Amino acid sequence: MAASAAAASRGALMRAGLTRRPVRRCSAAASPVPREAVKDILNHLIAGEDAAALKVAGLVASQEGRGSAEYAAHHASECAAVMFAHAEEARRQALISAGTGKALEGRDLAAVELLDSSLWLPEVQQCWSRHHDVARLSGAALRLRVTPMGASSSSSGGVAAAPAPEARDWQVLGRVVPVRLLLSPWAAVLQSYASSAVLESRSTAGIHPAVHGAMMNQAKHWQEHLGQPGPEGPLEDPSGGGRD
User: Fold this and answer.
1) Which of 141, 156, 171, 244 could form a disulfide with 76 if both were Cys (CB 3.0 to 4.6 A apart)?
2) pLDDT digits over 75-86, tens only?
């Protein structure tokens, strides 16, 4: 499953024009071309290696008149937005599979082994992994921004609005978090199992009103707090105002 998840992330980076490859060592004496450097930067940021990413960025950022942090943040932000946009259909299908408990179809619920890794469907796991990478890149872009969100104040004393690229980073991150929760093994397997088991018992032996009420409250909670697509913002701007 780990291999298939890695392939999904690699495919997303390919669509962004940045094939994901193993991180290569870089030195000042043999600087990578910018395209290769960007691949290395993204790999490091996804791995949580900010210092290594900044080291690579420092070798090429000056060519664009940027600092290393600004350069890395720009590419992390752009790649995260592209990966999120290109995952729309896969995201929709994965959420349907997770929400309808497809992993349990045709199985005897009384004999299901919930620790069986095959219950976390490959397409759900791959989509979860892709959105995990998007979250790491958006988070890295926010950390590395030269002017953090809300750091400056307006003339009226309030907090200034975030620049469009930064606002987009927050928006992407806000949309990725619920997707990852809904595609996680807890929701895609345990939640589906609990719902299926309750519905099965209801059709055979009836269901206690308190259990039914608890299930309805849980479903309402998920719909109200985790079932929405996330905040609106630069992603909905047809003019592409969220791009650097």
Assistant:
1) 141
2) 999 999 999 999
What is the distance of C-alpha 25 from the center of its chain?
27
Classify 78 as helix, strand or coil: helix
Question: Minimal CA–CA distance to 34: which of 56, 8, 4?
Answer: 56
Sign, CA torsion 211/217/221/227: positive
Place of tokens 């926010």: 142
Specify the pTM. Answer: 0.71
Which has the closest alpha carbon to 93: 9, 179, 199?
A: 179
Helices and strands counted in the chain (H then E): 10, 0
Question: What does each C-alpha distance from 218 to 82, 213, 225 come to in angstroms?
Answer: 33, 9, 11
- Please provide the DSSP assignment of 36-48 as one string: HHHHHHHHHHHTT
Q: Which of 9-18, 20-29, 50-59, 142-151 has the highest mean pLDDT?
A: 50-59
